[in-house]
Inverse folding.
């Protein structure tokens, strides 16, 4: 990520066609999935053969919109032509991460049968609560004129923070099959989040005033690092469960859930394509 930020901001003509091509090639390389798998293997220190099979087959079948070069091109287009877009998108991550943290906490409350998985889910929930605040801070750091004074603090105070909750489990327990399904979905969601971070980082860093760049960089790097951890622990759980006999189930879940997640991504992107695409992205959302 460091080099992508540096080369992007050192580019003297940040809006040129060459800069766009360069950006897309870096954030969405042709061997995107292979690079992702290598990062996850390195993090988990495991070859992850079952996980690799399941994810690769699902990607081949679905070809998710978020991993296509056009998706990165569209983000670049919006961030460089629509006033306030980059700031709005950065801030919107705050409440979204807080909501994700709530879901994870609720899941943790119901996991009674697997303490190792539960502990990791709880840590994940805590991370996302911290991220929700970090995104507000990042917005204030990178776009100092975007929010009126005090608005960031007020917004942060309205977002639920599970880190202050008592650690009470619910009496209804989540069946193991449901836990696998939840974490397959989580793993896919985190893959998209990491990609989003790669889309955002060079642009947010580019907007950040010079004196704030070190803070902006620190926040961005810590966010990406955490997302790799979230992909990593869920991938390793999948690998272990597949080794214990759930391989077929996991493979089928990846196909099914990636398909549904892809449709959701299209729905979430349609409005922006209509408002900001200027008719230049008719192919972006074709499934
Ligand atoms: Fe996050
Ligand atoms: Fe995450």
């Amino acid at each position: 990520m460091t080099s992508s930020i540096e080369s992007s901001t050192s580019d003297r003509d940040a809006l040129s066609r060459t800069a766009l091509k360069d950006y897309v090639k870096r954030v969405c390389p042709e061997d995107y999935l292979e690079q992702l798998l290598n990062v996850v293997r390195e993090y988990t220190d495991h070859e992850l053969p079952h996980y690799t099979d399941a994810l690769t087959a699902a990607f081949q079948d679905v070809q998710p919109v978020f991993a296509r070069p056009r998706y990165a091109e569209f983000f670049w287009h919006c961030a460089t032509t629509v006033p306030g877009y980059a700031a709005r998108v950065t801030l919107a991550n705050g409440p979204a991460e807080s909501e994700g943290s709530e879901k994870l906490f609720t899941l943790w409350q119901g996991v009674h049968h697997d303490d190792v998985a539960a502990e990791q889910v709880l840590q994940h929930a805590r991370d996302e609560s911290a991220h929700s605040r970090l995104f507000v801070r990042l917005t204030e750091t990178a776009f100092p004129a975007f929010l009126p004074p005090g608005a960031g603090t007020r917004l942060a105070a309205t977002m639920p923070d599970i880190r202050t909750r008592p650690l009470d489990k619910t009496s209804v327990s989540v069946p193991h099959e449901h836990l696998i399904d939840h974490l397959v979905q989580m793993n896919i969601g985190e893959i998209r989040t990491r990609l989003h971070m790669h889309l955002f980082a060079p642009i947010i860093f580019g907007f950040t005033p010079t004196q704030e760049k070190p803070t902006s960089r620190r926040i961005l790097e810590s966010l990406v690092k955490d997302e790799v951890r979230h992909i990593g622990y869920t991938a390793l759980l999948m690998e272990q469960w597949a080794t214990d006999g759930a391989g077929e189930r996991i493979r089928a879940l990846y196909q099914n859930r990636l398909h549904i997640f892809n449709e959701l991504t299209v729905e979430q992107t349609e409005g922006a394509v209509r408002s900001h695409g200027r008719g230049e992205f008719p192919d972006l959302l074709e499934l």
Observations:
- Residues 1-12 have pLDDT under 50 and may be disordered.
- The chain has one domain: 42-279.
- The first helix runs from residue 2 to 10.
- Residues 128, 190, 193, 227, 230 surround fe (ii) ion (ligand 2) (CB under 6 Å).
